[in-house]
Amino acid sequence: MTPPPAVLTTRELVAAGAALPVVQEAARPAPGPGELRLRTRWTMISPGTELHYLDRSARTGERFTLGYCAAGTVESTGPGTPGFAPGDQVIAMGWGEAVHADVITVPHLLCRPVPAGVDLADAVVANLAATAVHAVDRADLAPRDEVAVVGAGMVGLLVAQTAAARGCRVLVHDLRPDRLATAEALGLAVAEGPALPAAAPPAGTTGGRCVMLCGTGDMSAAMTGAARWASAAPGRPRLVGVGRFSARIDFSVELGNLDIRYAARCGAGYRDPSYARGLTGVTPAAGEHTVTENLQRALDLVASGAITPAAMRLPRFTLDEAAEAYTELRRRPPHPAALFHHPPAPTPAARKEAP
User: Fold this and answer.
1) Considering the entire predicted model, what is its pTM?
2) Which of 75, 181, 307, 347 holds its CA 20 to 30 A away from the CA of 103?
3) Is the Cα torsion angle 312, 313, 319, 325 positive or negative in sign?
4) Which secondary-structure segment (H or E) carries 39?
5) Would you call 124 exposed, middle or buried from its count of C-beta atoms within 10 A (0-12, 13-18, 19+)?
6) Alpha-carbon distance 263 to 319, whole Å?
7) Predicted confidence (pLDDT) per residue in 288-323, tens digit
8) Which residues make Cβ contacts (< 8 Å) with residue 25, sequence separation at least 6?
9) Helix %, strand %, coil % for the chain, to 5?
C-alpha cells in the first residue's frame, strides 16, 4: 500500500485584516502523536465567534484561520490514536485546527466517529451542539424544570433542543418572527416580543425556572426580565449565559435567591493541547463532562433525532463563495448559520485525465 504523502497542500479560510475572509494555501504535514489528518467534506460557520474574530482582525490587523467545526474522512493517523483508522468518517472540533479547509490536522480527542446512516452535513452540527450540551449541564436541569431560551440563533436552537431532550418544558423567545419560525419547525414552543411573557407557572408546578441567555449585544433588559420570570416559579431560579453578550443587572432582595452562571465553550479539556492529544487527563467539575464526552453526547442527540439539523435549513456554500456567506450572515438572515461543502479529492486516475 502506498503511504500517504508527508505533506498535503490545502486551501483554508483566513481573517486577514478585513471584514471578509480570504482563501489562502497552506501545508498540512503528516499527523503527529495523538493527531489525525482528515479530508474535509463539511465545515460549519459559527457566526458569533467567527464574525467576532473577523471584526477583531479588521481592527487590529491580526490574522486568524477561521472555523472550528468540521466533518470528513480520516486520511492518515499519527501514533497514539486508538479507535481511529484511515477511511473512518468523523466529526472534528478545535479552534485553529478543525478549520474551514479541504484538509485539516486535528487532535484525536476532539474527534468522534460518525454512526452509520448519519449524513456528514448533519453530523458537523454536533460540534457546536457540544457547547449546548455543556451549557445545559451547567444549568443543572431536572425534568420538572421549565426552560426559557432567549435568542433563537444557532446556539439558542441547539440549547433548546438539548434541554427538551432532558424532558424539560422549553420556550424559545426572540424579537424576530423569522428566527422563531425555525424554532417552530423544530417542534419548540415560541414567544415573540421585547420581554418574556409574565405567565405564572402551571398549577401544581414544583420545579424551578431556568433562562438560557443565548443572545448577542447588550442584554441588560433581557436579563432583568429573565430574572423576574425565573423567580416566579417555586423551585430554584437560574440564569445561564451562553455566548458573547454584555449585561447589567441591579441586585436586590426582590430578585430572590437567584443563581447566575456562565457556560463557556464545550467541556473540560477544550483548548488544552496536551489533553486533546491524549498526553494528559482532565477532571471535569461535578455534573460536567470532558469535551470528548460532550462531542459524543451531542452526536448521539443528532443520531437519535433529538437535534435535527436538516430542519434548520442551513444554506450551503463553497470556499469560493465565502465572501457571500459571511456578508449574508452579517445581515442576520433567518437562517442562524451556514455550511461549507468541500468536494472530495480527485482520484489519481481523475488527476491524470484532467487537461
Assistant:
1) 0.94
2) 307
3) negative
4) strand 35-45
5) buried
6) 31
7) 999 999 999 999 999 999 999 999 999 999 999 999
8) 9, 10, 11, 12
9) 30, 25, 40
Tracing cell 436586590 back to the chain, one arrives at 252
Which three cell numbers mark 107?
A: 487532535
Name the grid cell of 131.
457547547
> What are residue 293's phi and psi, to 5 degrees?
-65, -40
Residues 6+ apart with CB under 8 A from 60: none
Contact 304, 279 (CB under 8 A): no
Q: Which secondary structure element, helix H or strand E, spans residue 103, and what is its range? A: strand 103-107
pLDDT for the residue numbered 255: 76
Select the more confidently predicted residue: 73 or 215.
73
Tell me how far apart the alpha carbons of residues 304 and 122 are, in angstroms, rounded to a whole number: 12
Characterize 152-180 residue by residue with b for buried, 16 or more Cβ atoms within 10 angstroms of its Cβ, and e for exposed: bbbbbbbbbbbbbbbebbbbbbbeeeebb
